[in-house]
C-alpha cells in the first residue's frame, strides 16, 4: 500500500484522545470523563465556520464546541440540517452541514437560545 507523503494509513490514525502508538508496555489510557449532562443552550459556546479542507473543494459549514452527550449532538445536527434543507453529519464533537450555511445556522442558533455562538 503506497501512501502520499504526509498521509497516514488507517491503521495508524490517532484515536479520539489523540494517541497513535506507545512503546511503553505499562502505558494505560486515563479514562476520559464522559459528559453526563448536556450544557444548556445558553451555556454552549459554539463556533460556526466555513471549511473546505480535505473535501475536494466542496464547502461545508462546521459547527464545533458542543458540550454534551453524543445523542444530543446528533439531535442538534438533525435540526440544523433540516432547517437548512441540506445534508451533513454529526460526529466527533462537531456538526457538518453541506454548503455555506453559516448565516442560516447562526439564525437558528440564536432563535433557539444558543446566544454565545460566534461565526468565524
Instruction: Tell me the series of helices and strands, N- to C-terminal.
Output: EEHEEHE
The overall pLDDT average reads 84
- Which sheet architecture does the biggest sheet show? 5 strands, mixed
Rounded to an integer in angstroms, the radius of gyration calculated over CA atoms is 17 Å
Given the helix and strand composition, which structural class is it? Answer: alpha+beta
- The helical percent reads 10-25%
Q: Quickly give the CATH architecture of the domain at 39-115.
A: 2-Layer Sandwich
Which ranges are low-confidence, i.e. pLDDT below 50, for 5 or more consecutive residues?
none
Structure description:
It is built from two helices and five strands. With about 120 residues, it is an alpha+beta fold. The protein has a domain at about 40-115: SUI1-like domain (Translation Initiation Factor Eif1). It has a five-stranded mixed β-sheet with strand order 3-4-2-1-5, with helices on one face. A hairpin with an 8-residue loop joins strand 1 and strand 2 (about 60-65). The protein is globular. The model has no long low-confidence stretch (mean pLDDT about 85).
Amino acid at each position: 500500500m503506497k501512501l502520499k507523503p504526509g498521509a497516514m494509513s488507517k491503521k495508524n490514525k490517532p484515536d479520539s484522545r489523540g494517541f497513535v502508538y506507545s512503546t511503553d508496555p505499562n502505558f494505560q489510557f486515563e479514562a476520559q470523563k464522559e459528559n453526563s449532562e448536556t450544557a444548556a443552550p445558553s451555556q454552549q459556546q459554539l463556533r460556526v465556520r466555513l471549511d473546505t479542507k480535505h473535501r475536494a473543494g466542496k464547502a461545508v459549514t462546521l459547527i464545533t464546541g458542543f458540550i454534551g452527550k453524543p445523542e444530543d449532538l446528533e439531535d442538534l445536527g438533525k435540526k440544523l440540517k433540516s432547517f437548512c434543507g441540506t445534508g451533513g453529519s454529526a460526529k466527533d464533537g462537531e456538526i457538518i452541514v453541506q454548503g455555506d450555511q453559516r448565516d442560516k445556522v447562526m439564525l437558528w442558533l440564536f432563535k433557539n437560545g444558543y446566544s454565545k455562538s460566534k461565526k468565524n
